[in-house]
Amino acid sequence: MADKEQLAAVRIAVDEVDEQIVTLIARRERLIRIAGTLKGDDAEVRAPAGWNG
Fold first, then answer.
1. Where does residue 50 fall: left (phi above 0), alpha (psi -120 to 50 degrees), or beta otherwise?
2. Tens digits of per-residue pLDDT, 6-31?
3. Closest residue by Cα to residue 23 from 33, 34, 15, 12
4. Domain residues of the chain, as ranges?
5. In 39-52, alpha helices (H)
């Protein structure tokens, strides 16, 4: 029974991490959109050379 409880706890933890990831990706998208409005032209919107991600 302990293994099932541990598995359930791990699944809950994974779900929590997934929720945090989705929240962070949504925040990143909002910030990218803001950055796009603050830059003067399309060339400025691109990531700097050498940016890996």
1. left
2. 999 999 999 999 999 999 999 999 99
3. 15
4. 2-39
5. 42-45
